[in-house]
Each structure stands twice: as C-alpha cells, then as structure tokens.
Amino acid sequence: MTHLFQGARIRLHLLMALLMALCLIAMTALVAGLTQVRLRTSADETAQDLFRQVAQRNAQKLQDVLTTTGNAVQFLAAMPLIGVDGAGRMDRPKLMALLLAAVQAQTQLYSLYIGFDSDEMLQVIGLRNQPQLLATVGAPAGCHFALRTIERSAAHGGQPMESWIFLDARGVRMGERAAVPTDYAPSRRPWFLQARKSTGLQLTPPYAMSSAKEQGMSLARALSVGDGVVAADLVFSEFDQFAHASMQGHEGGVLLTNGEGELLARFAQPAFSQPPVERMEKLARSANGFFAATATLVGEETSRIITVQGRELVYARSAVHATPDSWLWVTAFSPVDRFVAPLRAVQRELLWLAVGGLLLILPLAYALSHWLGRSLGGLVRQSQRIQRGDFSGDEAQHSAIREFDEVCQAQHTMKLAIREHSLALDEAMRQLSCLVDSGKQLSRRRTAREVAQQCVDSACALVGAHSAQLWRRESDGLLRLVADSGYPDLPATAWDDAPRIAGDNGAPDDKALVDPCTAVARSRLPWFYTRGQLPEIDLGHQAEAAQWLQAQDPARAPTPHAAPDTLLAVPVLVGHEKLDGVLVLLDPRGGPSGRGGGQDALHGVQSLAAQAGIVFENLALEQAQEDFMEALLKLLAGAIDAKSAYTGGHCARVPELARMLAEAASATRSGPLADFHFSTAQQWREFHIGTWLHDCGKVTTPEHVMDKATKLETVYNRIHEVRMRFEVLLRDAQIACLEELQDGEDAALAYSRCAARVAELQADFAFVAECNIGGEVMAPERVQRLEQIAAQFWWRHFDDRLGLSHGEREHLTGFAPLPLPVREQLLADKPEHVVPRPPMDLQEHRYRFAMDVPEALYHYGELHNLRVQRGTLTPEDRFKINEHVIQTIVMLEQLPLPEDLKRIPEYAGTHHETLTGTGYPRRLDGSQLSVPARIMAVADIFEALTAGDRPYKPAKTLSESLALLNRFKRDRHIDGDVFDLFLTSGVYLEYARRFMKPEQMDAVDIAQYLG
C-alpha cells in the first residue's frame, strides 16, 4: 500500500527535468521579450535622437540667420554709425556701402534696407545670380546684388522716384535702371509700422514681399536718431532648400511654424506631403495628418512617438528665439519602422538560437537528474527512519558525490545529537514559558517593592536557584537589599557601603574583599563562579570571586545562607545602560532536571533582569509623568491666577477645599453620602486634576471683565471721561455768567444762576459716581434720575477719530463721522458702543451647551452699564465671565485623556450647575450631577465668598458666607447633604483657619443650618 502511495508521487529526476525545462523555456521567453522591448526602445531612442538632431540643426541654422540678421539690424539702427545725423541728413554712398557689406557677409539674407517717414528708402537685395530672383527684379544675368533707391525729386514735384543699380559678385557695376515714379511707400509697409509702434527688435508676421514676390518675414527696428526704420527680409524658400538638404538619406519632412501654429516653410517627401499644405495654413486644421500631428507639440521642445494613419512616426521639435517676444518652431518627423526593421532581424536570429539550445540541453538535464535521484534514495530512507524516531546505526552511509557524502556524515552526526538537543529544547521552552509568565506577572505589579519580590521569585523558578536577592541602587549611590526569595519580609536595615574594594580606605588591606554586587555594579557585566572550578564566564573577576567565596563573612555577605557552591550576579540596567540594581542567585541549577545551568542560566537570568529593568523604568516614567502633570497643573493654575491681580489664590485654594470635602465624604459610613468613596489612588488623582483645572478656561476671559471693579470700567475706569464732561459744563456755566455780566445783566442774579448750576452739576456728578460703584440693588427712581442727568448736552469740538488704533478705526467703519462741533448727550449709549458677537454655536451636539447668549459681544454704553441692577457686570460681561466654563469644557474634552482620566472635564466643568437645572453651561439637574461635581460647587462658592482679593466686593465673614450658602441650599442651588457634611465634618472651620483672615473668623452656630 505504501509502495502504491509513493508511486503516485512524481519522481525527483522527473521533477528536476521538468523544472529545468520550465526554467529554460521561461528564460528563453524572458530573453525574447526583453530583447523585443530593448530593441524597440533602442529603435525609438535612436529615431528620436536622430531627428532631434535634424530639428536642432535646422533650428540652429535659422537661429544663426536670425541672430546675425538681427545684430546687423540692431547695428545699423544706431544712427551715429550709419551716417544719419540728428537732422535726418544722409550720406547715401556710405549708407549703401554699409548695407551692401552686411548683405555680402550674410549669404542667407535676402534684403537689407532703411526706410524713412518721408517714404524714401535705401535697399540692397542679394540676388546671387538666382534666375528666379533675376527675372523678378529685372536684373541682368550674372548679377549678385541690386541697389534700390527711392527719393523724392524736387524736379518732379516731390514725387517718390525709384532707381536701381546692379552689381556683380565683386561689387562692380553691371548696369542700372533710370529713376521712375513709384507708388511704393515704406511708411505703410508692415515692417515699418510694427517697428515704429514698438521698441526694440521686431519680427513681422509673414507677408508677401513686393520685390521677391515670395512669402517671408522681416526683422525691423526703429532708428535711434531720426525718423526711420532699419529692416531685413528673410524668404521662406531659403529654409525650404536647407530643410531639403538636411533630409538627404531620410524619410519624412521638416516644417517651420510660428507661435500660432501656422506653416511658414516646409520640405516633405511625396509620401508625406499629400494632401498639399499651403504656407500660412494652421496645421491644427490641416487635412494632412502628418503635418497636423505637429500641433500636439505646440509649446514644447521635445521628441515624441506619434501614430498617424496607422504608422508610428518620430516627431522632434526645437525652438528658435527670433526676438525677445517672438518664437519660431522647427519640427522634423520620420517613420519609425525603417529603424525597427534591422533590429527585428537580429531578434529572430536570437530566438532561433535560444530554441536550438533548449532542444540540446533538455536530454542532458533529464539524464543528470535521474542519476542524482538514485544518489538521494539512500538519504531519503535514512531520513524516514529518523522521522520515525529510529536513531539506530553506528555507521554513516556513503555516496560517490562529495556533497551527498558530506550530507550523509552530517545526517549521522545529527542523529546522534537530536536526543541531546531535544532535551535542551525542552528546558529552553520551560525557561521561555517561565520568562513569558514572569513578564506578565511583572507587568501587573504596580509598586517597585512588588516588582522586586516578583523578580526574585521568578528568578528562582527560572533556574532552580536555592535563593535569590535583588539589590537596588538608591539615590545616595548605595546598593540596598529590597527583595529576598527566602525572606520576603525584609528588615528596615540595608547592606551599607556597597563599594568594598581592597585599598579603598587608604593603605592596602589584604582582608578587604570584593563582593559580587560591587563587582557587577562597577563593571556592568555578569559575575559567575563555581567553587573549585574555573569560571564559566571569564570577566576578569575570577580571583576576587574565589577570594570572596573562600572567605565568606556572614556579616558582609549578600545573603544569610551558607557559602554557596555556585553564584550568579547580573546587573539590572535601565535606559542607556544605567545601573538600577543587581540580581544575585545562589546555586542556580538550571531547572528541575538540572539542565540549563551555566551559560544557559546566565542568558535566562539576563532576560529576566532586562524585564525587571524595563518595568522599573516604566514605573519611574509613570511617576515622572504624574509629577510633571502635577507641576503643569499648578503652573497653569498659577498662570490663571497671575493673570488677575485680584484672584491670585483661587485656583490653589479651591482644590484644597475640594480635597478636604472629598476626604470627609469618603470617610462617611452612614447617611446619603455613605455610598460615595474614591477607592483607588487613580480616582483621587483624577478628581485632584479636575479641581486644579476647574477654571482653566479663564485664560480666555479678558482681565478688564474678570476684574471689573466699577460699572464704567473697561481697560480703565471711564468715570474720568464723564467727570471731564461735567468740568466742561461747569466751564460753560461760568462763561455764560460772564457773558451775562458783559451784556449788562444784574450781577447778583447772574452769579446766583451760575452758583445754582454749579451746585446742580456737583450733585449730578456725585450721583453718577455713586451709581458707578456696584451695589446690591439699583432702584427704579435712581435709574430715572440717571436718565434725566444723561439727557443734558455738551458740545464736542474735536474729532473723536484722531489717535485711534487700527482696531478702533475698523470698528468705526460703519459709522459716519458727524460735522464738528457736535452736540452730544452727557451720558449716552452710542451705536459704536456695541461690539457685535461673531458667529458661534453653543448648541453644538458634541458639547450640549444651553446658555442664553446676549446679542452683543460687549456693550460699552454708559447708561447701559450704569443701569446695572446689582454689581458691576452687564449681561454681556456676565456671559463673558460665565463663558470660562464653556472654554474649560471645550479645552479639556479636546485632550486625548486616558480612560482613567475621562471624568476630568466633568469635575472641572460642572461647578456652576444647580440641582434645579438653572445653572450653566448645560443646565444639568440634580440627577445629572455626581457627588464630586456637587462638592466642587460648594468649594468654589465658599472660596469666592470668603476671598479677600476681589476688587468688586469685600471679603465676607465666616457667618455671612455660611448664611449665603444655607440660602443656596434652600433654593437647591447647592447640594444640601454636601453642605451639611461641610459643617458637621468641621471642614469649614479647618479651611477658615488656614486661609481666612482673623477678622473674618466670627462666631457661627452651625445647628441652625443643619437638617
């Protein structure tokens, strides 16, 4: 049955032959594919490089012509150099000589000329014995240059007269044509108009030249001195000829276009020039697909493969900078297949060569794999016996193949070693399991003492040690025993003066010994020793170890046990190799089986020490984070208190009072608060942080609102402005009295009226100043008198828009200034006193705020502020102060708080809620308020009532404060059970003794408030 099952599987030699065949076929296909890709890429790159060069040569040729011609025009346009003075008088022979020299020097230049506003012109045409040009101009055969002059003749009534002179190649006159009238006017030609309209060198659009009867362009520039233009003509037929020459031996064509994509010149072989394309035709709309494809390259100087009419063509484009504002484009194209055909032939040859090699190698591969399969048969059978656990046989098999023979020898050695290694593996797995378990146990310990005890217990279990000790380095630099597996309840004393090294205290002392902890602490290296043998780990301490073990002194030993046979000490390191302590094990055996001692025990103990070091470091980091958080909270609270000069201790006193109340509530074992308690230190920390942050939103509250001591106070007390207006009215009364005396009024009567008016003003200002002080109630009759006083007027003669800041001016943008002098009320609520509120959404679902929001952000109106019924705050001011709780909640709920600190926003943001649901900012009722939130409300109110650092009210006595709290209790603004606990626990008195002034400490009968 086994034979049949094995026969169903593929044989090794067949598998090897098949794999080799597949590899060869895959490699052949890969080579063919890569060859095709690389050859095609090479063909495309070759074609693009070649025609990029063709386009660049044509572009460079045209660029050279344009640059040389442009330089000639620029040179001739400088009037002092060509014989034209400032009055426009010309030295015609000198001008003609300069023009002729320029045309002779530049063979591609068709014509160079100068035209003037008077329609006179000097022109030199390069005919160069070209029959077509000779016939067009009417020049004799052999003529190379024609000199054309247009002058106004006085003899013919100032009519322009045109004359010609014909020269041979050496400049010798061959003939001439007498002057005849002409209607050719240079001043109306495109080149003239464009040059006179613009500055610098200009390139005209293509046009039909009158002398050459061909399409071309002109480079022109106005004379620097005088009224005229220097211009040069370039005909497109010259570029056609050069393009034709550059395409010799290549298929395709060369095109010249302007920036608008219009065809200026071209050469294309017949296969690519049908249907024909005329000059100035836009290539984007051309019916010739080969020409139209260049439109896709507009604005690019590049090369690209484009498919046109089923054929792939390479297009290369190069730019020609005619003038600073004008560009021309040269495009060369050719079919790609003429480059690909030779490469495809090479590809076919390579493919046939690969197929031939494949047919030759496959039979050889099959024969070789069959031979190798027979050699492996014996190894397979031997492996099957090992698989069954049969390790019999003392001699290894042999093979003719050297590598297989070595495998047989290695297999035999492996067979002998597997049993030993399997036992070692079992021990290693046990140690690994122990390490994993110790890691779990260590991570669950929350104190350093618990971690230390777990560490020594795990160390004993890990290596089967007789006992273990953990010595930790403390802040004084000494090592002290913190855990012992044999004695978990350690005495308070510790091993003093750990560094006991020979010679430490002056003269050498032969009796001074090195203990293991000192050696490890100094070297940061493990210390291992076995009695009567050389150390298994040579760390340079063998002599000291032998001396220490042989003369063990119980008074100085790190363990109360007898001298051990084996001792292992490893450092416990944290951070960057910083020593935290030393783990000492006595008589480690490596486990219950006795295996795993020595080096293996060292590795396991080092891993355990590393785990302990990580846990110690994490505990230290957690403590450091808590300390940092505590310092940060106090820093923030201090900054909030420091922001106001009048509430410097509020953020420090409220947490203290809240803590005292929470401790009293947690200690209660009966009554309504019996079920409340903080069971963990983390819950206390969460509540503590919440109390410190209860007013963190005050960082957004302006000081002039939070510390508003009078009703007219903003950044300063505006009563001074009001007093100055009364001063003005007083001066007005005195002036009126003097005017009456001057007009002859009775002096006694005038003085009497003046005195009455002054007395009235004094009384009115005293009343206004009294209203400015925030009291308990603003009676209606006082408001009525305030409005009567405000109805008085005074005259302002100075512009109130001067000396304002940018923000003040921006606020007044919508209010038109009044013409001076302005009659204003003595006290007024002006439109500009209202600061609009920016958009805000207090009903956002995330925060669930439910506060009545005043329409204005601030209202600085004088009557509006003076009419405040109680205290100094307007509704806008009151909301701005209450808004600090909103900001507190928003700030804290945006923090990524861990799960054990999630209630911080609740503790910090609910101290202004009431049991009746009338508080703010969420209008929570008693069912929604926790005991800590109720404690915070009582603590915040009591501190505010008794604080003696508020500018808008005096500090209340102890009895007054408790009476007000009792009223809040009756109105269910605070929790009655918490208030009763506040009294019965004596917290109120303890707080008063610590934080209130002696004069506030009056007698209180708390019995009247209880129940």
UniProtKB/TrEMBL annotation:
Domain of life: Bacteria
Membrane-spanning intervals of the chain: 350-372
Transmembrane helix is among the record's keywords: yes
Keyword Membrane: yes
PROSITE patterns for this protein: HD_GYP
Residue ranges constituting the HD-GYP domain according to the UniProt record: 791-997
Alphabetically ordered keywords of this record: Membrane, Transmembrane, Transmembrane helix
Protein name listed in UniProt: HD-GYP domain-containing protein
